[in-house]
Amino acid sequence: MTEQPRQRGLMLEQALDACAKGHPEGIDAILEQEGAQLLGVARRILGRHDLAEEALQDAMVLIWRKAPQQNRGEGSARGWIYAVLRNRCLTLLRDGKRLASLSPEDLTRMQEARQDLLPDDGWKLLAGTGRLGECLDALDDPSRRAILLAHVAGYSHGEISARQGVPLGTAKSWIRRGLASLRECLS
């Protein structure tokens, strides 16, 4: 790992520490360093710029509030920040009122963008160099991919089954066994 990504990770950890202590410059540092990428991820998930901006703003509020609860030993600061954003985006997706105004073409475009959310090795950037990255790397590829599709891209077990071309029970088993292995590895 080069110094630049390590340095960026340390800067994000310091920014989260500042947020946990109630210093607003922590949010400023996160937005300065990762704002454009966060907005891009939100836009890919939601398919609309206005909703992506709303999700990013909501995520920053959640990060500000929950920074003291972030457990450094369970993954990188960057991974935690992106997980907060992802969860906020998925909440917005579930909120049908906001999406009711979308055309069928927009909904199709959103689904296609969601499929590209997890490039083959993109999980390594999200997990960082901490224990979570090591534990994910130790999983077999089908289990790791199924877990990431469920917990990063927000796919249901049925969608994962169809996407991976396996029976539903197989997809569920991959996720269950993979999560058990992750729990054991992280403890």
CATH domain topology of the largest domain: Rna Polymerase Sigma Factor, Chain: A
Q: Which term fits the overall shape? A: globular
CATH architecture annotation name of the largest domain: Orthogonal Bundle
Arithmetic mean pLDDT: 79
Major sheet summary line = none
Distance between the termini: 25 Å
Element-level helix/strand string: HHHHHHHHHHH
Rg from C-alpha positions? 17 Å
- CATH H-level name of the largest domain... which superfamily? RNA polymerase sigma factor, region 2, helix turn helix motif
As for the number of domains, it is 2
- Stretches where pLDDT is under 50 for at least 5 consecutive residues are none
Please indicate the percent range of residues in DSSP E strands (runs of 2 or more): under 5%
Helix content: over 70%
Domain RNA polymerase sigma-70 region: 32-98
Pfam families: Sigma70_r2 (PF04542), Sigma70_r4_2 (PF08281)
Family: Belongs to the sigma-70 factor family. ECF subfamily.
Domain RNA polymerase sigma factor 70 region 4 type: 131-182
